[in-house]
Structures are given as C-alpha cells and as structure tokens.
Amino acid sequence: MTPVVPEPRAPRPRRNRLPRAGLVPVCVGVLALTAAGCADPASGQGAPAAAASSPGSPHSPGLPGTDAGAPTAAAPDSSATGPAPASKGAGAGRGPGGTASGLCRAADLGISLSDADPGAGQIHYTVRLTNKGASSCTLGGFPGVSLLRKDGSVIGKPADREGASHGTRTLAPGKSTGFTLHTHNKGMDDGGCWEKPALLKVYPPGLKDALTLRTDAPEVCGDTFRTSAVGG
Predict the structure, then answer these.
(1) What is the tens place of the pLDDT at every residue in 183-208?
(2) CA–CA distances in Å: residue 5 to residues 1, 2, 8, 56
(3) CATH 2.60.40 for domain 106-227
(4) Nearest 5°: CA angle at 20, between 19 and 26?
(5) Where are the domains of the chain?
(6) I need a labelling partner for 142 at 20 to 30 A (CA). Which of 17, 72, 127, 189 fits?
(7) Residue 113: which region, alpha, beta or left (left: phi > 0; alpha: psi -120 to 50)?
C-alpha cells in the first residue's frame, strides 16, 4: 500500500505580543492607584504615613501643644488666703476691774448709809457706793437690797423698785454714787413695823457679789420698802 502523506497546514498569522517584562511596571502602577483610591477615609487605613500627624496637632512632633491626658493647672484655693484676722471682740468690753462692760467689782466698792431723812410721814435713807479701786468703773440700774438678821436670814422681803433708771454712772477712783431707800414713818400705817435689821445687804446693779453693812437701819414700817436706781 502506498502511505498517505498529510497535506501541510497553512501557517497561522503571528500576533504581535508585548514583552512580559513590559507588563510589570504597568501592573504595579495600576495596583498602587487602585489601593490609593479604595482606602476607607473613615477608618484611616491605607492613609499615607505622613498624614498621621497633621500640622497643629498636639501630638505633632516638634510643635507646641497640650496632651489631652495631662493634668491642667489647679485653680487657686479660695480657702488658702492666709489666716483670718483676729476678732476684735476677744477680751473687748472688759473694764478695769476685769468684769464685762467695765462694771465695778464688789470688791472695789465701799458702802455707807446716811441718817434717816423724815418728812410728811415718809422716811428716806441714802446708800452711797464708792469706788475704792485704782481705775474708773461704771454702775447703772437698780440694786438688790435686803435686810438681814444676825444669822443671815431675810427680814420681810427685798426692796421694791421705785422710779425710773438714771442710766450708767462712771466712777473715777474715790468717787461715789448712790440710791435712796424709802419707807414710812412709824405709826403712820396700821401695818406696824418690821424688826430692826442687823445687816443691810446690797447687790450693786449687774453684779452677783453682794456688799454688807452692819447697821440697825432702816426700820421698815407700813410694809413699805423701796429702792431707787443708782444715781437717783
């Protein structure tokens, strides 16, 4: 048999192809542009490293700023304004005798009783209080007056107040002021008379310490026993 020889095929036309080496730079450039355009601006991913610190940012290296976590300067403490001034009331209002408002002390006062001054059925006695201290002091208001027996018990009742107050009197050393005791003359009233005292007890106005004077006067009659204010 005669062998069959295949007919030769016509050659295919060759296509012009770009060299593979030329594709690499083009692809790299395309990928870089794609990555830059597809980065999410909200997430901040894919942003250039230079954009991490913008000009004027507190964290920008080499620029002044305040760290958000740094403590701020403390406000001045209004309580630290220095010590409060000393009160002017400390020790104020003290008199020469050391008592409040310059009152005379009972220890610095002398007491005396005048003779009876009768008139129209009334009898008056003047009680004098003298400043025996070295400094001036004051007295004002009504005293407390009682008549005592030898054992210290009270005869009758303390003297009632009579008349108005005469204000405060300032007594220089050696000076005196006084008040008046008032009762009725014996036999003028049906009430009779109290027994005669052994002591006259006087509380100067505003003081808790009393003065005592050994005396048998006044003899109170008609249940009338009254005292005026100091200075009256």
Answers:
(1) 999 888 777 999 999 999 999 999 99
(2) 12, 9, 9, 86
(3) yes
(4) 100
(5) 106-227
(6) 189
(7) beta
Residue found under tokens 């050391």: 98
3-state SS class at 126:
strand
d(CA 102, CA 8): 150
- Number of residues written out for the chain: 232
102: which 2 tokens?
């310059």
- Neighbour count for residue 177 (Cβ, 10 Å): 22
d(CA 214, CA 198) in angstroms, rounded, equals 6
Task: Report yes or no: 168 and 138 within 8 Å, Cβ to Cβ.
Answer: yes
Concatenating the DSSP letter of every residue in 146-175 gives EEE-TTSPEES-PPEE-S----EEEE-TT-
Q: Write the pLDDT tens digit of every residue in 120-173.
A: 999 999 999 999 999 999 999 999 999 999 999 999 999 999 999 989 999 999
CB burial readout 141-152, b (16+ within 10 A) else e:
bbbbbbbbeeee
Residue that is written with structure tokens 């080499």 in the block:
62
Structure tokens that stand for 206 in this block: 């505003």
- The residues with which 127 forms a beta bridge, in sequence order, are 113, 179
Q: Which residue has the tokens 């980065």?
A: 39
pTM of this structure: 0.57
